[in-house]
């Protein structure tokens, strides 16, 4: 059996009620996974540019999930398709100030989760994905 990783999810953003408790929790679980050297501090904290965690004063259990897109046109198509399928606009396609070249669009899914498609600008991948073959 083969699995491919690195093709779909760009990042996940969790909003939490207690930032310090969450930081302790994720430090422990990532250390157990051998990933204890990837914590970065900021307004919240993040691991390996993939999991962002910050405090929400108006805490509502919502997840922000971002999918990778190969170009701007795909981001625009994502936004149109999501709205046509019942999503609610949460940020039209456009450049964002997160870093140069960041082009994203945001919608709320039927449960209120913030779903994004993002193109990070011109890039060259070292590989299309990582292939994991079960032994």
Description:
The protein has two helices and ten strands; from the N terminus they run E-E-H-E-E-E-E-H-E-E-E-E. Helix content is 20%, strand content 39%. The longest helix has 14 residues, at 19-32. It is globular. It is α+β, with helices and mostly antiparallel strands. The mean pLDDT is 83. The strands form two sheets. The protein has an eight-stranded mixed sheet, with helices on one face. 12% of the residues are buried.
Summarize the structure in short:
With 135 residues, this protein is α+β, with helices and mostly antiparallel strands. It is built from 2 helices and 10 strands, in the order E-E-H-E-E-E-E-H-E-E-E-E.
Key terms:
135 residues; alpha+beta; eight-stranded mixed beta sheet; 10 strands; globular
Class inferred from helices and paired strands: alpha+beta
Let me know the largest β-sheet: 8 strands, mixed
**Assembly type of the shown chains?**
single chain
**Strand percentage:** 35-45%
Order of helices and strands: EEHEEEEHEEEE
Strand tally, please? 10
N-to-C CA distance: 8 Å
Alpha plus pi helix count: 2
Q: Judging from the principal axes of the Cα atoms, what is the shape?
A: globular
Strand arrangement, largest sheet?
A: 3-4-5-2-6-9-8-7
Low-confidence stretches: none
Secondary structure layout plus pairing:
Elements: E1 2-5, E2 9-16, H1 19-32, E3 39-41, E4 45-47, E5 51-55, E6 63-68, H2 72-84, E7 88-95, E8 103-108, E9 114-119, E10 130-133
Parallel strand pairs: 2-5, 6-9
Antiparallel strand pairs: 1-10, 2-6, 3-4, 4-5, 7-8, 8-9
